[in-house]
User: Fold these one by one.
Assistant:
Number 1:
Amino acid sequence: MAVSGQAQLPTAMEKGPRGRMKRLMLDTAIRLMQSGGSPSVSEVAEAAQVSRATAYRYFPSQAAMIQAAVDDALGPILDWSSGEADPEKRVAELFSFAYHRMQAYEATHRAALLLALDQWQRRQAGTLGVEPRVVRGNRRGLLKAAVDPLSDAIGKEATDRVTQALSLLFGIEAIIILKDIWGLDAKEAEHVASWAASALIRTALEEAGEGETPVGKGAAKPGKGEGKTRKKGA
């Protein structure tokens, strides 16, 4: 099953001298980012021992270079697919498959997040100019593909809500919260995220099975002493 709806999917690497030069630039950029930096195109050119003019022919801006480096670091995650029909097991497969790769290139993803936040600040201040934005939408397509079997059981609207909730657990932001704030190691962070994902799916299935309408989706807020959800017709 192909994963669709992802932003900025990487194209196949070119062959020949041009492909080798681009590979060198990307490998150098990732190496510098994995060391904790957020390198400019000029810094990558210097580290790769190529001219700045050559470097800018491949990557006209830092944003374009970091975007390409992140897509390259994600690698096989972008091609993930599953034949599993059970949505909970399917999402667990994705989290197990993807978290290891994301944490292996954690510094690279942190650098991309840092640049995205910096671009947001400059855009708000009106100083971003024509610099291309760092696009960070790959999780949307992956999560939609993972929860696809849910739609028949709970409907499109509820499935979309589950997908949006899962996006809070999948990606560098979740890794930062679990590791930096809670002090978890890589395996513990993956376990917590996967556990929470399973809990979300089970809750959605239970709500659909009980005919419940979550508060905020057309249902009145519960009064004092009432539950958080109301059964239709109650």
Note: Strands lie at 212-214, 229-231.
Number 2:
Amino acid sequence: MSNEFMGKTAIISGAAGGIGLAIAEALAEQGMNIAMADIDKAALIASGEALQAKGYNVITCSLDVTDYSQWEDVVANAQDKFGKVHMVVNNAGVGGASGKIEDAEHETWRWVMDVNVTGVLYGAQACIPVIKSHGEGGWVLNVASMAGMMGMPYATAYCASKAAVVSMTESWIPELEPHHIHTSVLCPAFVKTRIHESYRNRQEKYAIAPDKRIDKEKLKAGANAAAMAVESGIPTEMLAKRVIEALSSKQHYIFTHPHYRKVAMGRFKAIEEAFVDAEESPVVGHLIDEDIITF
């Protein structure tokens, strides 16, 4: 087992199933103590008991990632049980609903942003101070998506939220490095999870008024397409092994689908061409010799 992970403690949101559960088991296999957190209490208890039956040091904590006080409770529970916290895996996320711009439900947009973006912020805010406090360093792993590297039509809220997670991670890398906290963003393409069934755990505060709901047939068509894409994905166990591999080699960007490189490169090529156009512009081209301002 890796001495790097052995005896350390990880808090993982969205750990009752899918990617979160697979990462929890993979880290437990490396000798880590695991605080599994999820909004789905029944699934969480069952998954926690399954890992405990395998002899892993695991506790389960109920968590709605959009409620900061619940994050504080999870951190307190992890400290009470294991003493220190070394890692947070901000994994909890929802898919939202696919559809045209003009059909976007405001409550659904707010739900996606609160879970996928604010939930990551809350996880970091609750965990990073306690990781810093022991001076041993640690890890922050934010789960984004290839959707954070590329836009996709009819999936605006999800893509925007995952792009935000990528940018948040990039901002935290230099901020946390002096504290020996390694920060990474996981950007998988399709994985066999239940993200296309995210509505099963939608909180009441994001309920949609009947007169504001998208036509059911439109929702059904989008859900069917999402289900087919997810079912074609890689197993969560494969993704988890890749995470351990990439964390061990200190990767900041963790990719699981190398064939998507050409998609990302297409975006970078377009950006490069746009910069060339700016350099040749009679309006702003003279700024090429200006100093770059960083913080």
Note: The helical segments are 18-29, 41-53, 68-82, 106-133, 156-176, 216-231, 236-248, 261-279.
Number 3:
Amino acid sequence: MKKDSPPTDGGRRHVLGTLGSLGLFALGGCGGGGTDTSTLAPIMTSGVSTAATTATTAATTSTAADTTTTSSACLVVPEETAGPYPADGSNASNNNYNVLALSGIVRSDIRTNVGGTAQVGGAPLTLTITLTNTKTSCAPLAGYAIYLWHCTREGTYSVYTTQSLSDNHLRGVQETDANGTVSFITVVPGCYAGRMPHMHLEIYPSLSNAKSAGRKVKTTQLAFPTETLRAIYNNAAGYSQSVANLNATSFATDNVFSDGTSLEMVNFSGDATSGYSANIAIAISA
């Protein structure tokens, strides 16, 4: 498991003082690793991993984008750090914030605070995650819970930025259906200094267990194709700082993804008019 680092926006420098190098602010950067497609509309890229040793793969296809590959391997997704801003009841950033205990946190649209109507800005994105089990040849895992959280287009995290549990946008929980699938309506994450663009997720064996971090069975992160996001950042409002941050880093220097992204890279498609979609199948040993 690799260490995550925090965003370095000025509003959270006081948090960094207590975190030292432990938190998300210190993570590897949000920047330019590889080339997929540089056109904004339509955008289509893909990647599923090659990081493991024993790939039972029928075929492997290299993508010119981000040097990721597509493989039929049934492999456990890497364990990654939750970083300093999970708000899952653990003592992260010296606070025990827990959005998992909130009524209403089980939701598909995470662009608002729970119970609110005001949406955060950003390029609309629908993310679909399919959870499978390596012990059953990657058959779908139904009835599991996935907690997803990520930064805004400006690179900040809810709850911790304002130090308020009611400020909980871009966080939500979904239960996997019979196909092992959940979908979240969100926005394209920004890129903050020191990390490649990413999303965090925790997996729980059921919704009833998804009340605090102590019951999670997996923590990991999702990666995004660099040139695809570069095109979005250059054309969508509110991502200006992400352009510079992305140019300043790469997967090779990211301290979470530097050992590979193949099992964590989403498939990405869409355009600015109709919106963007991303999907990924991840496996655990259940």
Note: The helical segments are 13-19, 226-235, 240-247.
